[in-house]
Structure formats: C-alpha cells, structure tokens
C-alpha cells in the first residue's frame, strides 16, 4: 500500500506480442490434420494470428498506391500465393475435410479417404454470358471472426469448426480480392459446401467471397485475347502450386504434424517415444493408401522460415495481381474463358459426388440447384433425378420450380451433348396423370425457346416411338399424352420447321422398323395437327431418303414411304398454291427416282440393252458396239412395252411416285389395297398429272446414272400425265433440242482402225430418234410456243403435224403438189443412201485388194498314147472342179445375202441426227406409235384448234389448188367443228363448197357434211359479214359460172341455188340478187360474169341468163348505176356467134324469143331516127350501109333513108327472121320490113336495090350478103 494508505494502482498487463507469421503458417500446416482438442486450439490460435497479420497488412495496403510494390512489405499475402502447403491447407479447410467427413465429425482413430487431387483434367466448353453484379458489400470479417474465435463461439453457427472454415474463406478473400482471376480449386470448394451443409456459403461473414463466386457463374461476357492469356497463366500457376504441395510431401492431411512449440523447445520423452512409434509404423500406413489419425504429436519437420520459403519474382506477382478496368469493383467475375470452363467442370464433379451419396437432405439441394443451372452438366445431372423428385410429395414443389428454371436455362442455340440429354430425360419422365399438362407445357416451352431442327426432331421421335412399340404399330388415340405433346409442340413451331422435323422423325422411326407400315400412325398425327404443311413434310422425307438406299429392296421400301407421305398432300387440296407446291414435290421425287432408284436399276437395264445390241450386230465390223435395237417400244404406246424387263419394274415405281400409275400397277407396288381415305388422297394428287416444266425434264437430261433409253422412257412417262391438259404446259424448245442428244450414237472403233479415216456425220439410234421426235410432236400439241419453233425449224415435225392435222398419213404430205413431192422424195432417198453407206463402212470389214495375177497360159495337155482312162479322169476332175466352184460361189452368195440382210437391219438402226435437215419419212414401224400418241393426246384436235400458230391453215395452203387437194379431209373437219370456217378465207369456203358439190361419186356424202360451209356462204352472200365478203364470195362463185368447165359451171349453179334460196325455179338466185342489200354492187359484178357465161351455156340455162341480163339492165337504169352494159349488143353478139344455140334457146322459151325480137326491132327503129343513131361501137369491120326502103319520109312512101347499123345487128336480125315461126307477130313484120322492102306499086320490074340486098360495108362498099342470103 502507499503512504496514503491507498493500495497501489494495478499495473496494466504488458501488450501481447505480435504473432509471428511463419510460426502461424507452420502451426496451421501442422495442425490442419489433427483431431485433438489441443490441436484444434493450436490451429485456432494460428488462424487468429494469421488473420491478424493479414488484417494489418490490409490496413497498410490501403495507404499504398501500387499493390505490386507493396507485396514485398506484406509477407502474409505473399506467402498465401507462394506457399503451396499453406494454400492447399486453406482450401482443404473450406470443404471441412480436416475435421469433418460428410456431415459428421471424424472420430480419432478412424480412417478417411485421402485428400482430393488438386489437378484437374478438364475439357473446354462453350459458355453463355450474363452481366455480372456490381454490388460492393462491406467487409470487416477478419476482426469479427478473430473476436468470435477467441471467445469460443462463431457469429453464425456457434461452433469453432465452422469458424475455421470462415477463417479460411476470409483469409483467402483478403488476398484474392486484389486478383482478377481466382483459382479453380476455390470454386470446387464452394460447390462442395453449396451442395452439402452450406457451412460457410450461407455465412454472413463470407458474403463477399460468395458474391464473387456466384457472379462468376453468370459471367459469359466475351473477353479479349490478352485477358484470356493472363487468365490461363494464373490458372496454370495455381495448378502447379497444388502439384508442388503434393510433391513436397506437405499435404494438409499428412500423417506428420509440426507443433508451434517445437520450434522453441526440445521434445519431451513422451514425444520422443511417440516419434519412435510413428517411425516404426510409417511404412505400413503410407503403403496402405490411407492415412491414420494419430493421438499424439508427430515427428518434427523443418519449419518454414523467411529463409527457406518459396520465392516468387515480382514479374510473376504482376501476373497474379495485374488489374483490369473492373478491378475497382469489389464484386466482379473472377473466372473467364477456359478458367470458367474448368470451374464449371469442378461444380459438375461436386454435384456428381453429391448425387451419388446416400444423403437424404435433398430439399437444400433442390433449393440451390437453380443457381447452378447455367452449367450444362449440372442441368444434365439434375434432369436424371427430376422425375423421382417430381413424384416425391415433399420435393414436388421444389422440383416443379427446378423444372421451370431448367427449361428457361437451356440455351436457344445449338445444343451440346449434355443439353440433348436434358431434353431426352425430360421427355422420358414418367409422371402422374395430373402432372401431364405440366410435362407437355415444359416440352412445348423448350421447343418454342429452341426452335431448331434437332430439338424438334428429338421431341417428335419420342412422341412417335412411344406409340409404335407393338408389332402392328398402335395408332395414337386423341387425348393421348404423346399425341397431345406432339400437337402442342407442332403448334408453336414454324410450319416449315415443324414439317421438316416431323419428317426427320418419321424417317428415324422407319429406319428402326423398316418392314413395318407406319402409315396409320402418320395419318393419325397429321389429322390431329392444325396447319400441317404436307408438301414440306413430303419433300423432307424425300431429302432424308436420298443416298441411303443400298439395294433395290431398300430403295423400294423408301419409295413406299415417300409415296405414303406424298399422298398426304391430298389433304391440302384447298391450298391456293397447291399446283406450284405439287410441282416442287414432283421435282424432288423425280430427282430421287433418277439419282437413287435409277442408279440401282441402271446396271440391269444396261445389261439387257447390251444383249439386244449384240443380237443385231456380231462385232465383225470396224466398231466394237452396234447401235441400239431398232425398236419403237415407247411408254406413250403401252402396247409396245416389254413388261417383263427391269425397265418396266423401274417405271412402275416412278409412275406410282409421280401419281401416274394405273390401279393394277399401284397395287403391285404398294402391296395392298388403299383404304377410303388413302384412295381419296391419291385421287386428289392424280388430278394434277400435267404439272410439268423445263425443270423436270432437265432433271432427267442431267442424270448420269441412268441410260439414254431410260431417260427417254422417263420423259415419255412424264408426258403421259399431260394427255388431258387443257392449257399450254411451260416447256421450251431448248429442252427438245437437248432431248435429241439422248439419241446420239457414237461408234467405238477397234484399235486397229482408229476411226478408219472416215468422216462420219452426226449419227443417232433410229428408234430413239423417232421416239424423241414423237415426244416433240406431242409437246407441239401441248405448247404453242414449242409448236411454233418446231414448225419453223424442224421439217420432219412439220410434216408430222400436217399428217396429224389432216389425218392423212402419207409421205410426202397431202398438201404438197407434184413438184414438191418429187423434191421431198429425192432428199429422203439421198439421206437413206448416206445412212446405208455409213452402215456399210462401220459394220463390215474393209475389202482387201487382191493383187492382179496374170492368167496362166493354157497349154495343150500331153496325153500318153494308149491310155484311154486319162481322158475320163480329166473329165471327172473337171466335173468335180465345176461342182466345187459352184458350191463355193453358192456359199459366198449366201454369205453376201446374210451380210446384206444384216446391213439392212443395221442401216435402219442408225439415223442421221440432224433434226433441221429435210423432212424424213417415218418408218412403217413407227406408224403405230404416232397413231397411239395422236389418240392419247388428241393431237389432231389440238392442232386444228390452235390459232397461233394456225396449223390448219398452214396445212391447207394457199390457192384453189391447195383447197382442191385438201377438200376431202377438210370438209369432214368443218362438219365436226363449224368454228373452223371462221378461220378460213372466204375464198376457201367457197372453193370447198364448190368441191363438195362436184366430188363425183362421193358428192352425196360430202354435201351432207358441207352444211356448215353452205350456211357460211349463204351468210356471206346475204351480206351478214359485210359488203366486201359478200362481193368476194359472189365473185368466186361467178368465176365458176363463167368457167369453160361444164362441171364447174354446174357445181357453181348448185351452190348458188342452195346458198341464195328463192322460189323462182332454175337459176332463181339471179332474181334474188336484186333484193340483196348490196345489190347495187353485186348486179354489175353479175352482169360481167353472166355475159361471159353466155358463150358456154345453152338451152334453158342460156335463156334464163339472157332474161336475167335484161332485167339487170333495167335495174341499173332504174337505180341510175353508171355502166357500159347494153343488152341489145350482148344479144346480137350472142346470136351472131352462136346462132343455132340461140335459136334452140328461143324455141324453148317464148319469152326469150319475144324479148329478142322486140329488142332487135327496136334497134332498127332507133337507127332510122337520125343520121347519127347507131347501135353500139362501130369499127372498120363492124359497120355497113343499109338502104331501108318502105320508110316514109315526109309522108312519101317512095322515099328511103340510109342508116348505119352493126353487122351483129344485121346478122342477129337475119337469125331471128330465119327462125321465126309466127308470121302474125307485129314485131316480126316490122323487122321483116327493114330487111326485105317490096317493089313500089307492085312494079317488080323497077330496078330498086333496097333492104338487106343493099347492105354494104361502109369501109370498102362491098356487099355484105347476096340475094340468096336474104330470102325469107
């Protein structure tokens, strides 16, 4: 006590010495594997010391500007990143392996598994990026943990063991927070604790390190190459650090232990004994592969001091602590690039171990799993257990959330193998019926989020395969889970993608069971899907089956599947684009038939064709191979097709796929009868067989696997479908010219000939050439564009069109005149001669020129005298020699006949392949094919109905001679189609009608067929088609009225009598013309030709013509029509030139007789009225002077007057007067008074020269007639 009696003040305890860094490190390393209370206390003290040192260094670091420069003053931070043993011990503390195994504490003396290997053999995986969080939580955990540890409690859990883990996490974060890239081992420890007890992951004091780790899971931002290289170097460093920890024998769970006090004192006896016992058992424990937990202290090891610690250069530290632009953010992604992939791998491994354990605490796991679903492997592992979690009532809610999050976490790009398995596991989940809507919804969301072919196909395969497990292939019922799932998924996909995916699924399904028919399942699915794109589906089936057939059997199976799927397009018959889509589908199927199916059949077909070539050519010529068989077996004529060969089997499949097959062939191909629905779909597809264009033909032309004859047969098959087409098909002439390339024959010469020095023309196989020509003929009927080109550029096609149009199959064609026929025959003959010459050069060997030998000189035989047998033997030898020569000559002749016969056949098999050459005569073997094509395509009607080009008019030709050559086939055509008349020229109509009425023995039939012609001519003459047509028609008929030919005049009268109906009897049409609306034009025209006709007609016809001319003349006067017609002149000329014919006509018709008498008498009266009065034009030889007596002048009968009249009038008057029988006729007496004047007052002796006797020519005053000529 002090003097004041007060007790002395209490002395403050001396401050605790600062902990030694290296003592703490050695203690932590040594005690990390201990399980005693003392070891735990020592470890806690060391951890507190190290935490304090790190905290102090953190305070100093805040005062520094450069982290790298400050590390030399911060040994704790430096040790943590350079000391391999310390780094590994701290990491092992995070997983609780030092004190815990699984979920319970490890008891002393128990064995435990060796510490996990820190080396990672991982694969790089592609990850997606999400933006990291930029939160900056406050951290003061070092001091908090130190305080709680010293008091023996943990701020979170109240246990000292968890405090060790929190200590380790905090110490690591204090150092690693300054680094942009963290070690992968840290992420592994985080995953272990997150999937396990969550000892430090959920601790509030570790929220900063946890926030950085969690943010790294969502870090998928792209990085530059420099950052990636730095991250790889950092990871490489930490991996090597872990390896050094193992190789140095300083692992955390080592059986040796170094105590803190061992550095300051000598070991006790007990410790020495313990060390001795440890030395004795060390070999056994280390060789067992397990580590023993010892009760006592271990042998001493060299402690870590500043002098023997691992050194690290500042350059290496710069790599670790190199800062980026984001380094100021406390919470930021710490794993990028390859490091992130490694981190994901470690997380996946941790989850694998967790799921493999028997722990039942799955609720925490299901709560934590959504946070890790961004990792593909985690999604895959979780999906394997999802169905059992969903069916567990305690876990169902968490599992549903996990399912929803898993669906959302799937990437919307191409999936890796893990995600493919995720979808597969989700599809295979077997849930309760009340969970089916959730199941379907999840799968639908996946399909909507990842609209790729692979995902949709995977779903559809599962849905289809789920109901086809039975041998018969069970049909899905409406409401079935798989059908509802398929329908739901199909509805959210693009129609094209959905159809493609379903097609791929069907192909996979059929590949599993190729012998089974899946048509019922496919149709059930299609009928329950809305918006099904049948065309895309069928095309995808075709595309999927391309290149998969190895033999004909598998190819036929593929063809049946293609047909079943293609028939579904019949359900889309109301689609406005049905035709265009069907064309695209037909192209796809045709391409498959050519490339896949055709390639398999090609070898068999080629062998069969080669055998036929060998039958016609024995190879004894200059070439190795002869031309193709001279055959016209075409699929355009089914009767000529060989139905037993491989070609026909191939064509049955093609026709079935292209919807061109007959019911019999279709049944043989499919193998069963179609049900009602299938038959209706097939019929809908068959309703559009004419869907064809250049593209389809080019597919055939560009095909290499098939032979040329097969290609021609394919084109013929395609053409069959167009036989009922009513519109032009879109085919160009360019394709036709390319078709002729298929007919080419290229001779292959034997090596010794080398083309033989021959200049060969372009050759073709005759049968193929004519088959292609018939195809071109059919295309001309189906396309006016093709027809126009072929008509102009292909003479043979032109001739065939003419034959087909006229139905006169003769060569040259019916429209040719004699000169044209002769020319065509000559050109065709030259071409045949050229072909025969070429065939002889190709198929026979060149003749060897034998050297000319001198004839031996016959010498008289020297006979031995006295031998009579020599003469008989000589005669016998001569007879034998003659017989042998005859035999040799006969053999040579037979051989020559055989060769000529073979050459004739071969000459027919080759053809000059020049389509633009002169017209060629079709072989008689091709006539059946041409006729069959005409019937199949109705070519005659098509050609006749064509207007552009107008094949009918061009076949008829121009002029009357062309009509006369065409009337016998043209009139029947007109009788069937009266509209043809409107395309004919008016002249053609009249000519045809005239020819019909003058056809002789066939006239009766032709007249009956010519009713449309008669109607047309009648309308033309009546003016219904206008004045011009009326005039032209009448003029053409009148030309025949005035023709020299009696038959033509007779036919023309018949035609006019029928065309101009009237009630006036014979030639009543003449009177009816005056009532025509165009009479003012027609009457003058009729007068001209009737005047000409007077020179040829006789009898009643002549009388009618004359009477009509008289009426026409008055008609023209009444209507004041300007003309030069004078009836009297015409009659006088007629009487003058044809007196007897006219007299006969007048005897027949009294009306005509009176008319002529009146007109001639009037002409004489007119001439007496004045000196200038005359009758018609007068010439030097047509005038005469006639003194007329008995004409009173000024009431004096004895006075006469000279008048001038024409000779024709005088002669006509003489003819009339001489033939008159009725003397009481007044006009006759008047006329007679002009011709014969009696003597004055009966004085017959008065020499008066008057009347006809006084008629003399005016020019030379010579008498025109003698007295005898004018006697009455």
UniProtKB/TrEMBL annotation:
Residue ranges with Basic and acidic residues bias: 268-281
Region of interest: Disordered: 98-157, 260-311
Highest taxon, organism lineage: Eukaryota
Start-end of Polar residues biased regions: 131-157
Pfam families: INTS1_RP2B-bd
Ranges for domain Integrator complex subunit 1 RPB2-binding: 343-434
Stated name of the protein: Integrator complex subunit 1 RPB2-binding domain-containing protein
């Amino acid at each position: 006590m002090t003097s004041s009696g007060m007790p002395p003040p209490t002395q403050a305890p001396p401050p605790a010495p600062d902990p030694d860094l290296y003592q703490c490190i050695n203690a932590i390393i040594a005690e990390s594997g201990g399980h005693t209370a003392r070891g735990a206390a020592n470890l806690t003290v060391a951890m507190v010391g190290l935490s304090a040192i790190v905290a102090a260094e953190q305070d100093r670091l805040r005062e520094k500007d450069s982290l790298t420069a400050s590390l030399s003053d911060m040994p704790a931070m430096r040790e943590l990143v350079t000391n391999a043993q310390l780094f590994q011990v701290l990491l092992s503390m995070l997983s609780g392996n030092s004190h815990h195994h699984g979920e319970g504490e490890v008891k002393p003396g128990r064995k435990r598994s060796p510490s996990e290997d820190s080396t990672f053999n991982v694969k790089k995986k592609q990850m997606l990026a999400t933006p990291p969080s930029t939160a900056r939580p406050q951290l003061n955990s070092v001091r908090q943990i130190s305080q709680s540890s010293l008091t023996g409690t943990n701020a979170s859990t109240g246990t000292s063991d968890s405090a060790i883990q929190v200590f380790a996490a905090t110490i690591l974060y204090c150092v690693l927070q300054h680094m942009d890239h963290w070690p992968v081992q840290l992420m592994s420890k985080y995953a272990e604790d997150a999937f396990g007890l969550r000892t430090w992951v959920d601790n509030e004091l570790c929220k900063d390190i946890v926030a950085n780790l969690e943010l790294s899971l969502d870090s998928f931002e792209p990085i530059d190459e420099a950052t990636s290289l730095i991250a790889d170097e950092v990871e490489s460093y930490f991996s090597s650090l872990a390896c050094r920890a193992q190789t140095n024998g300083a692992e955390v769970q080592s059986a040796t232990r170094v105590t803190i006090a061992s550095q300051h004192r000598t070991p006790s006896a007990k410790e020495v004994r313990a060390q001795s016992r440890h030395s004795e058992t060390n070999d056994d424990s280390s060789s067992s592969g397990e580590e023993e937990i010892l009760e006592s202290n271990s042998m001493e090891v060299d402690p870590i001091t500043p002098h023997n610690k691992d050194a690290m250069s500042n350059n290496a530290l710069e790599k670790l602590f190199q800062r980026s632009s984001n380094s100021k953010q406390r919470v930021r992604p710490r794993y990028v690039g390859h490091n992130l992939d490694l981190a994901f791998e470690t997380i996946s491994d941790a989850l694998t171990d967790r799921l493999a354990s028997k722990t039942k605490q799955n609720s925490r796991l299901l709560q934590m799993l959504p946070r890790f679903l961004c990792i593909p492997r985690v999604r895959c592992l979780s999906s394997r257990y999802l169905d059992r979690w969903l069916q567990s009532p305690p876990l169902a809610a968490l599992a549903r959330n996990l399912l929803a999050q898993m669906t959302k976490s799937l990437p919307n790009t191409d999936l890796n193998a893990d995600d493919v398995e995720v979808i597969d596991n989700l599809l295979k989940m077997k849930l309760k019926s009340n969970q089916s809507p959730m199941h379907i919804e999840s799968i639908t969301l996946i399909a909507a989020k990842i609209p790729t072919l692979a995902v949709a196909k995977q779903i559809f395969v599962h849905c289809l395969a789920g109901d086809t497990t039975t041998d018969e292939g069970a049909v899905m019922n409406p409401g079935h889970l798989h059908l509802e799932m398929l329908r739901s998924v199909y509805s959210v996909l693009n129609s094209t993608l959905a159809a493609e995916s379903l097609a791929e699924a069907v192909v996979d399904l059929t590949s599993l069971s190729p012998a089974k028919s899946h048509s019922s399942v496919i149709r059930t699915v299609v009928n329950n899907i809305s918006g099904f794109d049948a065309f895309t589906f069928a095309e995808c089936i075709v595309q999927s089956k391309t290149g998969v057939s190895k033999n004909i059997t598998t190819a036929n199976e593929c063809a049946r599947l293609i047909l079943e799927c293609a028939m579904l397009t019949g359900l889309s018959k109301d689609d406005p684009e049905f035709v265009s889509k069907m064309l695209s589908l037909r192209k796809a199927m045709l391409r498959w038939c050519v490339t896949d199916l055709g390639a398999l059949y090609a070898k068999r077909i080629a062998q069969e064709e080669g055998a036929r070539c060998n039958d016609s050519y024995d190879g004894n010529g200059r070439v190795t191979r002869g031309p193709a068989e001279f055959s016209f077996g075409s699929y355009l004529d089914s009767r000529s097709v060989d139905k037993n060969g491989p070609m026909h089997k191939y064509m049955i499949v093609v026709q079935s796929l292209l919807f061109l097959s007959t019911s019999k062939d279709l049944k043989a191909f499919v193998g069963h009868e179609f049900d009602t629905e299938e038959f209706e779909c097939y019929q809908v597809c068959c309703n559009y067989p004419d869907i064809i264009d250049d593209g389809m033909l080019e597919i055939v032309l560009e095909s290499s696997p098939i032979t040329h004859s097969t290609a021609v047969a394919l084109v013929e098959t395609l053409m069959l479908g167009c036989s009922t087409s009513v519109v032009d098909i879109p085919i160009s002439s360019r394709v036709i010219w390319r078709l002729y390339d298929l007919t080419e024959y290229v001779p292959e010469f034997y090596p010794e000939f080398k083309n033989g020095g021959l200049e060969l023309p372009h050759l073709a196989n005759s049968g193929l050439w004519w088959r292609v020509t018939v195809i071109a003929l059919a295309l001309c009927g189906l396309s006016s564009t093709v027809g126009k080109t072929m008509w102009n550029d292909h003479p043979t096609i032109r001739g065939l069109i003419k034959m087909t149009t006229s139905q006169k199959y003769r060569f040259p064609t019916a429209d040719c005149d004699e000169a044209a026929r002769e020319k065509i025959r000559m050109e065709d003959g030259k071409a045949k001669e050229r072909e025969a010459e070429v065939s002889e050069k190709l198929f026979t060997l060149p003749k060897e020129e034998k050297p000319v030998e001198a004839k031996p000189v016959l010498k008289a035989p020297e006979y031995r005298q006295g031998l009579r047998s020599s003469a008989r033997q000589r005669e016998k030898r001569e007879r034998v020699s003659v017989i042998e020569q005859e035999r040799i000559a006969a053999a040579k002749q037979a051989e020559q006949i055989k060769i000529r016969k073979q050459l004739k056949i071969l000459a027919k098999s080759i053809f000059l392949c020049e389509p633009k050459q002169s017209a060629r005569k079709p072989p008689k073997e091709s006539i059946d094919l041409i006729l069959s094509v005409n019937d199949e395509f109705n070519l005659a009607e098509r050609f006749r109905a064509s207007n552009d080009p107008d094949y009918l008019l061009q076949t008829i030709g121009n002029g009357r001679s062309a009509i006369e050559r065409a009337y016998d086939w043209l009139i029947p055509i007109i009788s069937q189609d009266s509209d043809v008349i409107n395309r004919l020229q008016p002249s053609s109509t009249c000519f045809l009608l005239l020819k019909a009425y003058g056809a002789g023995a066939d006239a009766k039939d032709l007249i009956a067929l010519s009713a449309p012609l008669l109607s047309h001519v009648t309308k033309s003459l009546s003016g219904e088609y206008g004045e011009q047509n009326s005039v032209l028609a009448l003029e053409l008929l009148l030309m025949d009225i005035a023709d020299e030919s009696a038959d033509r005049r007779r036919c023309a009268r018949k035609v006019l009598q029928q065309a101009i109906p009237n009630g006036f009897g014979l030639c009543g049409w003449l009177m009816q013309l005056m009532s025509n609306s165009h009479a003012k034009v027609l009457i003058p025209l009729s007068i001209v030709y009737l005047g000409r006709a007077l020179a040829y007609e006789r009898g009643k016809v002549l009388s009618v013509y004359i009477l009509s001319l008289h009426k026409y003349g008055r008609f023209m006067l009444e209507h004041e029509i300007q003309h030069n017609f004078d009836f009297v002149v015409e009659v006088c000329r007629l009487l003058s030139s044809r007196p007897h014919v006219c007299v006969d006509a007048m005897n027949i018709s009294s009306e005509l007789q009176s008319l002529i008498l009146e007109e001639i008498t009037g002409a004489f009266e007119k001439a007496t009225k004045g000196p200038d009065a005359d009758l018609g034009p007068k010439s030097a030889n047509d005038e005469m002077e006639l003194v007329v007596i008995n004409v009173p002048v000024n009431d004096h009968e004895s006075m006469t007057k000279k008048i001038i009249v024409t000779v024709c009038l005088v002669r006509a008057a003489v003819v009339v007067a001489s033939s008159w029988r009725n003397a009481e006729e007044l006009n006759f007496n008047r006329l007679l008074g002009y011709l014969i004047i009696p003597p004055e007052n009966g004085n017959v002796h008065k020499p008066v020269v008057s009347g006809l006797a006084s008629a003399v020519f005016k020019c030379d005053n010579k008498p025109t007639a003698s007295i005898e000529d004018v006697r009455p």
